[in-house]
Specification:
By secondary structure, the chain is an alpha+beta fold. It has 8 helices and 6 strands. The protein has 3 domains: 68 residues, no CATH class; 58 residues, no CATH class; 44 residues, no CATH class. The protein is elongated, with a radius of gyration of 27 Å.
């Protein structure tokens, strides 16, 4: 980015258009809520100045409007990749591509799940399949699993699909059986009963003190 454009963009106000031309290429810097800079070789450089409508909204130059129409999945893929923290905690580009492509395939075949819900279901299924394979493997010692892995395995393999989900406020089933007044937003997806997520969920499925 030319230093002149960067310096002028710092002082730009909402609606300002800054243009820099070099040969057959033009840099257009448009100020809305933040700086939007575009490099183009097919648009006539817009007139510099401040352009806002009667409502005070910044008027988009043609190059920005064309980009919004023809950008395809460029910005959308970046937005989906960075929606949730898991994608920002790894340098493995293959993981980002895996989650993105599977969601695109889900939508292509008529899927209705949101991006967040799709990721939750996908990760849940991957964990389930992984633990089932480890549980059925014989004659191979993989070392002693951690307590957390053992607990997940017990829930996933022996009590498949018993996972918590968030819904409307309801009475906790375990608390009610113990004549206690307990309400919760969580319930078991398979059992379809309200359960306190901290203690009652585990007790109900492990049949501990119930």
């Amino acid at each position: 980015m030319p230093k002149e454009i960067s310096f002028r963009a710092i002082k730009a106000k909402k609606g300002d258009i800054i243009t820099w031309v070099g040969g057959n290429q033009s840099i257009v810097c448009w100020k809305d809520k933040c700086d939007v800079c575009v490099l183009t070789n097919m648009h006539t450089p817009p007139v510099e100045g401040n352009f806002c409508d009667e409502s005070g909204h910044a008027v988009k130059p043609c190059v920005i409007e064309d980009y919004n129409v023809h950008m395809g999945y460029v910005d959308k893929s970046d937005r989906m990749v960075n929606s949730y923290g898991i994608a920002r905690r790894t340098c493995k580009w293959t993981k980002k591509l895996f989650f993105l492509n599977t969601f695109v395939l889900h939508k292509t075949y008529g899927g209705k799940m949101t991006h967040q819900r799709f990721r939750e279901v996908l990760v849940h299924n991957l964990i389930t399949e992984s633990h089932e394979q480890n549980a059925t493997a014989s004659g191979v010692s993989r070392g002693r699993p951690s307590p957390s892995v053992t607990q997940i395995s017990r829930l996933e393999v022996k009590y498949s699909q018993h996972w918590p989900s968030k819904g409307k406020q309801c009475r906790c089933h375990v608390c009610t059986m113990k004549n206690k007044r307990g309400s919760t937003l969580y319930f078991c997806m398979k059992c379809d009963v309200g359960l306190c997520i901290v203690e009652c969920f585990g007790r109900w499925h492990m049949r501990v003190n119930v």
